[in-house]
Amino acid sequence: xxxxxxxxxRVLALLIAQLKQGISPQxxxxxxxxxxxxxxxxxxxxxxxxxxxxxxxxKLNQPVIQLVNWLASPLxxxxxxxxxxxxxxxxxxxxxxxxxxxxxxxxxxxxxKFLRDFGLTGVHGIIGWLVAAPVAGLLLYRVLLxxxxxxxxxxxxxxxxxx
Length: 163
Prior knowledge:
By secondary structure, the chain is mostly helical.
């Protein structure tokens, strides 16, 4: 029940408010798409800045893109190994053994040694993300656009009496 309340009061209310302020369904769908794609970027600690920069550059809504980024943050942890393996496959690199907890521990122990040991792994993750994100983004936009248009129609102000 708390999840439904959070979703309705925080997420849908924010989207409806943005639509009522004149933000187009296309802009909201684009903002959500980019927020999700950037939230999956395989370098921890970078997504907030990426979302901020992208929203400023494309004149997108900051609260919406940051909300999507925040909600999708668990996705990043799940997709890091996927992007790394995909990137390794793309460049025909030897797979490196790692786990997310191992990465956290290695970084905390020595950031310099971490970069030496896992820097190329991060590059492989970025390569995998660079190939997958545009495809996922196009599909996601095609899913989100009809949903935001429906939300806009459903919450459009009722026509008033003509003077």
